[in-house]
Amino acid sequence: MTVRRCRALGIDPGLAVTGFAVVEVLERGGRVNDCGCIRTRSALATPERLGIIYNRVCEVIRKWSPNLLVMEDAFVNIKYPKAALQLGEVRGVISVAARNLNVNVSELRPSETKLALTGNGGAGKEQVANAVRKILEIDTPSGSSHVSDALALALTGLSRNGLFNWS
């Protein structure tokens, strides 16, 4: 079977910390091309923080030319309504960055990603991180749950689009 070479950019959005990961499909398996966190300081005004996220996402897209951007869908904790609004703003600037650079955006609920990688939609962060390390055959942990989540999103997005199969 011939595998189409492509890249997915997984993004775990957040105003303080946005995790990102670029995963490339190879003939056999996948490779992590880039990953990390975009951090913004709470002392900055929200528009400045959103601008930092927008600019950094654009840099990553320009550098790696992903075929697909996979972002975690919004979830709302009724105890923190302001956080949901901020998350919506972050997701908005990421979507605009992708659109402006002609990258298709796909969204996944956290439970969908957990189920796809571990077989359990309620899996914990460590279970997801372990699955990501096993699938991508990387020895070291990502160092951040935001990066691990971004890797998980990229893998699941590639799988859902028929571009990567780890089973």
Q: What's the number of structural domains?
A: 1
CATH architecture: 2-Layer Sandwich
How can the largest sheet be summarized? Answer: 5 strands, mixed
Number of helices: 5
Summed up:
The protein contains five helices and five strands, in the order E-E-E-H-E-H-E-H-H-H. The protein is of the alpha/beta class and 167 residues long. It has one domain: Ribonuclease H-like superfamily/Ribonuclease H (Nucleotidyltransferase, domain 5).
Structure description:
By secondary structure, the chain is an alpha/beta fold. It has a single domain (7-160), classed as Ribonuclease H-like superfamily/Ribonuclease H (Nucleotidyltransferase, domain 5). Helix content is 46%, strand content 21%. The protein is built from 5 helices and 5 strands, in the order βββαβαβααα. It has helices at 46-64, 81-100, 110-118, 125-136, 145-160; strands at 7-12, 17-25, 30-39, 68-72, 104-108. Strands 3-2-1-4-5 form a 5-stranded mixed beta sheet. β1 and β2 form a beta hairpin. It starts with 6 loop residues before the first strand and ends in a 7-residue tail after the last helix. The model has no long low-confidence stretch (mean pLDDT 90).
Give the topology, please.
Elements: E1 7-12, E2 17-25, E3 30-39, H1 46-64, E4 68-72, H2 81-100, E5 104-108, H3 110-118, H4 125-136, H5 145-160
Parallel strand pairs: 1-4, 4-5
Antiparallel strand pairs: 1-2, 2-3
Helix pairs in contact: 1-2, 3-5, 4-5
Q: Key terms for this structure?
A:
5 strands; five-stranded mixed sheet; 5 helices; 167 residues; Nucleotidyltransferase, domain 5; alpha/beta; globular
